[in-house]
Each structure stands twice: as C-alpha cells, then as structure tokens.
Amino acid sequence: MSNQYVIVPQNYRSDSMVSISPADKRYFEQAQAKQKSPPQQMIFGGYSPSPSLQKSLSTQLSEQSMDDFGRMQKDSDTELVVQYILQLRDTEKREQALSELSKKRESFPHLAPLLWHSVGTIAIFLQEIAVVYQHLQPAQLTPTQSSRICSVLGLLQCLALHVQTRSCFLRAHIPLFLYPFLNTSNKSKAFENLRVTSLGVIGALVKGDDPEAINFLMQTEIIPLCLRIMKKGQELSRTVATFIVQKILLDDNGLNYICQTPERFFAVSQVLQTMIDDLHQSQKDDQRLLRHIIRCYLRLSENQKAGEVLKKYLPQVLKDPTQSFIKDEVVKKWHNNLLQNLSIK
Ligand code: TRP
C-alpha cells in the first residue's frame, strides 16, 4: 500500500511531527548506528482472501433473499433487524432505524454480516458520513446530527469487530472516511462524541491484533492523527487514541515503523511525555490512561535503539522506581520492566 490511500489534508502532519534539535537527532542516529542489523523493512501482510470471504464479497444479498433469510430464521429478532435494515432506505424512517440497529449491536451477533451483505446499506452509511463533512468546517454540528452519525459509527464499529466483515471493511477502505472526523479540534460535546466514536471504530479494528488491520492503519497515517488527539484531546478521546497507538506498537511491524526514524520516535515519545506531565501536574488519577502510556513506553524500550534514547528521555517522574501514582499491580510490573530494560534500576 502506498500514499494513494491518504485522503486527509496534508497539513495535519506538521502538527504531530515535532521539530527535533540537531543534537537529539544525532543522539538517536548514533543509537541507531550502534545496532548491528539495519532497520528492519516493513513486511506487508500479502493479503489473499479466503474462498468463503471471496464468495461473500461477491455475493450481495438481494432484498428477496433477505426476506428468505428472515423466514428461515423464524426469529423475531432477526425479522426486526432485517426490517430496520430495509427501513434505512426510506429517508423518513432512516434516523429511527439507525438508532434501533445500533442498539442491537451487542445483542444480535449476526448484525455485521447482515449489514455488510445487504444491498445498499454500506452506501447509505457512507452517504450519512458525507453529509457530516460539510458541517466540520466551519464547525456546526448539532447534537441531533452528532447522535445520528454516532449511530452510523456504532454500526461501523460492529463491522470492524466482526471476524467475517473486518477484512471486507478494510479492503473497502472504510476507515479512511472517518479520518476527517479525527482531524477536528472543536471542543464541543458534539465534536468530542464524534471523535470518540470514530476512534472507537479504529479501536475495534486494532483490538483483534490483526496485522492486516495494523498495516492498513499505519500505511494510511493514523498515527499522526492519534498523536494530535493524545496531545490536545479530552480525557476519553485521549485514552482511546493512546490505546490505538499502543496496539500498533505491540505489533512487530508497528514498533519497527515507529522506531525507524528519529522524527517518528520523538513525535511519539514527546506526546507520551506531555500526557505524563499533564497527569502529574493536574494530579488527575487517570489509571486507565496511565496504563496505556506505560505500556507504550515499555514496548518502545524493547526496541534497541529506542531503548538507548529513552534512557535519556524518559520523563523524570517515571525514572523513580518508588513513585506512588501507579496503582494497578500489572502496570507497576510493566513500569519495573521498563526501568530494567533501560537499566535505570
Ligand atoms: N508521514 C509521516 C511519516 O511517515 C507520518 C507520521 C507523522 C508519523 N508523525 C508520525 C509516523 C509519528 C509515525 C510516528 O513519518
């Protein structure tokens, strides 16, 4: 995959790309030179869909076969869901149908394949998304619009989570349609909801530790978008964005990718540091965010060159092995391992 997938405005990058002093850059490059093997090339998971997946990709259920499906199941829940899916086509009934379907996300396990394979449903979702673009700049998203798009995003999350649809979802490049939502900075509740729910879809994709998903997100430059949110976002969006970066780092290709250049490494480590400083200064007890930050640091410390550099750049508060603001036992252990990897204790 190459840059052809990038549909986000170019200028968002400058924000998360830090400027590094020549001395820092040299320091990183020296650490890199110490490493015997050259930076590992990224391995692209050569994707080939399974026969069943190919079949499902090419089979679009007609309205008729959806009716058949409903009858076969003799299940009132299925009938109801199918009815709502059909109602999506009626613009009058769409808002209600979206809301009802998104409520069924957890209780109805076949929702994702039904949504994906029913004719026109995904096109309707994309249409709903496109309507919102015009309200991003200037920012004027009403709570009603926000809640309607969040129902759509909830359904996309369900497609991202389901093993039978995740791959189709990626191959259709659906996540790219959400990047403009992540690239917003308006502080209102409507926009924060939009960002958190969009991040939720990306979070669902990375949850399965699927290298195909990680590769897709990396190649389409989700990292700078996440870093921006981690730096400036509100509590919840910050936490989900950090979780996504953590999941990318836990992937071998992801770690190599981030540690490949000093600019990438410092962009990530400076944002982690900013969040630690924020937590420390505000005395906020956000253990969940702390957990993700420590896990990110620990993973970075497993890369030889990044580890060398982290020795110097780990935030002062984290260099103290006796610090008391980490409460969770697992996280305490990660912190210990981190200090060990960096030979700090
Ligand atoms: N195009 C940039 C790059 O590949 C994307 C990017 C910006 C990035 N900030 C980053 C990638 C931080 C990884 C980490 O370098």
Q: Can you offer a commentary on this structure?
A:
This protein has 345 residues and is mainly α. It contains 21 helices and no strands. It has helices at residues 12-16, 22-34, 51-58, 63-73, 76-87, 91-103, 111-117, 121-133, 143-161, 163-171, 179-182, 189-207, 211-219, 222-232, 235-250, 252-258, 262-282, 287-301, 304-313, 316-319, 329-341. The chain binds tryptophan.
Which descriptors apply to this entry?
345 residues; single chain; disordered N terminus; mainly alpha
Task: Specify the structural class.
Answer: mainly alpha
**Residue share in helix:** 55-70%
Taking all Cα atoms into account, the compactness measure Rg is: 22 Å
- The low-pLDDT segments are 1-14, 36-61
User: How much of the sequence is in beta strands?
Assistant: under 5%
Calculate the mean pLDDT score and round it. 87
Number of helices, where a helix is a run of at least 4 consecutive DSSP H or I residues: 21
Q: Alpha-carbon distance between the termini?
A: 42 Å
Largest sheet data: none
Q: What hetero molecules are bound to the protein chains? A: tryptophan
Give the ordered list of helices and strands: HHHHHHHHHHHHHHHHHHHHH
Care to count the β-strands? 0
Query: Could you say which overall geometry the principal axes of the C-alpha atoms support?
Result: elongated
